[in-house]
Structures are given as structure tokens and as C-alpha cells.
Design brief:
This protein has 4 helices and 4 strands; from the N terminus they run αααββαββ. The chain is of the alpha+beta class. Strands 1-2-4-3 form a 4-stranded antiparallel beta sheet. The radius of gyration is 41 Å and the shape is rod-shaped.
Length: about 180
């Protein structure tokens, strides 16, 4: 009987040890899987934090550069600003006592076809050489990204009896950047 009792205790102890090993192994793998889930969640939180920081940084950048962006935007004709641009050319001609006329207006695609295009205005004007030169100078100093090309000066005898002496004729093309 003592042998049977010892054998029974041995079997119970062995089964208890095996059960303990099984439970410990199960708990170990459970902890490892929970740790993996925790790391995945932690990485997701870190990614969201980085996105939030980038968003806040972008908002600050937009706020800090608002004035500079507004200044840069002023170098372009607005998407609906062609008429205003032509009116400003006509206003400059009146201010410089030059008779001007806009002969044609065209729109060309820019290098980056998606965002900008060029407004091309063909202008002719008459007046004194001094006033025509002043007109061109003021036009060139407009706060826009413009290019004046195909400039042509011609001296003429005045056909108007009110204007004595020679008059000058000016023809040129103004090309300005415009937002679409």
C-alpha cells in the first residue's frame, strides 16, 4: 500500500507539474499576444500623434506665412482679374496723358498647365515720347509678374490741328501671369 500511495502521489505530482507547465505556457503566450497587441496600439497612437503634430505645425506655418503668401499672390492676376488688369493699363494711360487702346487679349497655357496661364494684351498708344516712356515705366513697375515684349516706337507728324509738332506711336505686348 505504501507503494501504491507513493505511486499515486507521484502521478498526482507529475500531473500537477504538467498542468502547471501547461498553465504557465498558456499564460506566457497570452501575455506575449497581449504585448503584441499593446505594441500595435502604441505604434498607432505614435503615428496619430505624429500626424497631429504635423497638422499643428502646418497650421502654424500657414498662419505665419499668410502675409508672405498674400504678397506672392499679388504678383499674379486673379482667376477673374483680366478685366481689372486691362482697366489698370487704361488707368495708367490716362494718368500719363497717353491715348491708348487695347487691340487684343489672349490667354495662353503656362508651363505648369494646372495652375497658371498667361494673359497676353496687345496695346497701342499715342502721345509725346516722354509720356509714352513714362507710361511704359509705370506699366513695368506694376506689382505683377509681367513681361513687356515687341515694343515698337514710331515718330509721326501730328494730323490733329490741336496738337502741334510730332507725336509718337507705341505698340507693345504685355504678358502677365494669371491663376486659373
Amino acid at each position: 500500500m505504501p507503494k501504491k500511495k507513493v505511486t499515486t502521489i507521484f502521478i498526482i505530482a507529475t500531473l500537477s507539474a504538467l498542468a502547471s507547465v501547461f498553465v504557465a505556457t498558456f499564460l506566457y503566450y497570452l501575455i506575449i499576444s497581449k504585448q503584441s497587441e499593446f505594441l500595435i496600439i502604441e505604434n498607432s497612437i505614435s503615428a496619430l500623434k505624429l500626424e497631429q503634430d504635423a497638422s499643428v505645425s502646418m497650421k502654424h506655418l500657414l498662419t505665419d506665412t499668410a502675409e508672405q503668401r498674400k504678397k506672392i499672390d499679388s504678383y499674379f492676376i486673379g482667376s477673374d482679374g483680366i478685366v481689372t488688369f486691362i482697366e489698370s493699363i487704361e488707368r495708367l494711360s490716362r494718368e500719363t496723358s497717353v491715348d491708348s487702346s487695347v487691340n487684343s487679349v489672349g490667354v495662353e497655357q503656362g508651363a505648369s498647365a494646372e495652375e497658371v496661364e498667361y494673359v497676353t494684351v496687345n496695346v497701342s498708344a499715342e502721345g509725346s515720347f516722354r509720356n509714352l516712356f513714362w507710361f511704359l515705366s509705370l506699366l513695368e513697375k506694376m506689382p505683377l509678374k509681367i513681361e513687356i515684349t515687341k515694343v515698337y516706337f514710331e515718330q509721326r507728324e501730328s494730323v490733329d490741328p490741336k496738337k502741334k509738332g510730332t507725336t509718337w506711336r507705341l505698340a507693345f505686348v504685355v504678358k502677365a501671369l494669371k491663376f486659373k
